[in-house]
Description:
two-stranded antiparallel ribbon; 36% helix; binds zinc ion
Amino acid sequence: MKKSHGPSLKATPIPLKWCPICKGKAVTKRVFHELLCTECHASGWVSAETGEPLPVEILVTQLGLMLNIYQQRIITLERDWPRVSSAADQYSQNNRRGAGGTNYTGD
Ligand SMILES: [Zn+2]
């Protein structure tokens, strides 16, 4: 990542916080129904520093970056505690059996 020219802001994670209007729910309650929150572009997130909503094109990138970060955390969690995730449970157990036990690949 070079900082030679141009704003590299888009690919840098910006601290986000829950939108104070919709409390991170992306919708606001009205009397009869819920409306998409206009304050945060219906994302539920605003800049943690300014409290202002981010421009949509930056917001999309930020949400993508956050998703990547949390996905990595989940993958790490699943690796360390396979029982945390039921989806990855079988795969991890099979892996464990192969690595810790017979080492037989089954081909
Ligand atoms: Zn909102």
